[in-house]
Prior knowledge:
There is one protein chain. The chain has 117 residues and is an all-alpha fold. The chain has 2 domains: 5-59, lambda repressor-like DNA-binding domains (434 Repressor (Amino-terminal Domain)); 82-116, no CATH class. The chain is 71% helix and 0% strand. The chain is globular, with a radius of gyration of 16 Å.
Amino acid sequence: xxxxxxxxxxxxxxxxxxxxxxxxxxxxxxxxxxxxxxxxxxxxxxxxxxxxxxxxxxxxxxxxxxxxxxxxxxxxxxxxxxxxxxxxxxxxxxxxxxxxxxxxxxxxxxxxxxxxx
Length: 117
C-alpha cells in the first residue's frame, strides 16, 4: 500500500531503526511498510500517524490534508504567535537554516533526557 512513511521519516532525519525504536516496532517492519510490501496493523498505523502528527489518510496517501482540523487550528495559532521568528528564519541562508535545525534537535534531545530523569 502506498504511504508517506519514508518521506516523513526522512523529514525527521531518522533511520529506519531510529523510527522503529520510537514507535515500538522493528527495522524490518518499517522497511516493509516503506516499500509497500506490508500494511501495518492498525495500532502501528495509528502510532505512526500520531508520531508524525498527521492523519491516517495523509500517511497512506488517501488525502493531501496533513492535519486534523483541530491540529490545523493550533498550528495557525502557533504561526501567529511566532510569525516574526518564521520571517527571520526565511531570511537565513540554507547553511544557517541547517545549523539552526541541528541546534533545535540537540536542545530537544537534551530536554527529553532531562525529563526522563
